[in-house]
Amino acid sequence: MNFGTSRASAIENLNRFVDQNLFEYSKLRNFDYGPDNRSNISCLSPYITHGVISELEVIKKSLSKFSFSKNEKFIQEVLWRTYWKGWLELRPNVWTDYLNELKKIREEFKNNADFKNAIDGNTNVECFNEWVNELKTNNYLHNHARMWFASIWVFTLELPWQLGAELFMKHLYDGDAAANTLGWRWVAGIQTQGKNYLASEWNIKKFTNNRFSNIKLNENAPPKTTNKVYSASKLEFINPESFEEKNLLIFENNLSFEITDFNNQKFKKIFLISNKNKNRTIELSERVVKFKTQLIEDQKKRLEEKSINCEIIDLSEVQNIEKNSYGLYPTIGENLDYIKTNNIKIEFLYRKLDKFSWQYCNKGFFNFKNYIPKIITTFNS
Fold first, then answer.
1. Of the residues 155, 189, 207, which one is the last residue of a structural domain?
2. Cys-Cys with 46: which of 173, 175, 221, 273 at CB 3.0–4.6 Å?
3. Partners of 348 in the β-ladder
């Protein structure tokens, strides 16, 4: 499996999937045929996560091929990440609490043999070991495999979900604070309290075409519990009515300025923000850092081709230019943490899709998906 590091690669992958494989997506999407055969899924998440292509671009392309009714499951999956981000924006303490818990648990488990065996792929569960290797080698896992992996980690290996979520963030090209953290919470049973996800031998065998044997799991574990309850905040995400001529900061989640809602505005200079490991709580693998770096470089190249004044700078340098800058909102995660911790004053610009969609993220996804037709109608006219 190879992920190109350019917008051109992302568009090529999108077009190929829609033209050749979208028609069977609903029927085949849950099958994990292994890293050498991903034709049944889009593999677009690394690009959507970094804003190289947008959810709306993907949805528009899919609707050019099939009607909404024939395409509904795929569109729902595309908007899951939008939903997770909105859910977390309304409950930012979930992310803060996760990082605080992670720091404590790291210390407790730094010499734990079971934890070391798990991250080395040296357990008694063959499929899990294979997925650890795939995660580190390809920096991607099928969504179904992520669910199985997390369930085995929490309920069979009996390791803290916080450490598993860190492992994913370290190695996944599409690692995202919202989708990753909340997905692990959901498997553990604390996102929807009292309802956990338990991987089963029959399910893994069926949806991997019997690729694995020796699947001995805890299939009856109770959900994890927590005393913490997070209520949705009432937040407003407001963009300026008129724009001054300021600098624009672009973080790693918006790496296609040309498709943003602000591409017609004139900015003094665009700064592309690189956040390497020295400013992160969760250290990323070298491969993930390289992937992000090359996507940023590709955005710089495309901007320069349009004669737009731009420069790549480190996150720590933002403090030197903050007084006269807008910033495309980085969403909750490591970049926003650094900005808030260092009291850096930036006027954030919010995507119209997020501003509109996040109002429907105060409850569960099943409530959110009722508004998907409205979201599509609003932005696909």
1. 207
2. 173
3. 327
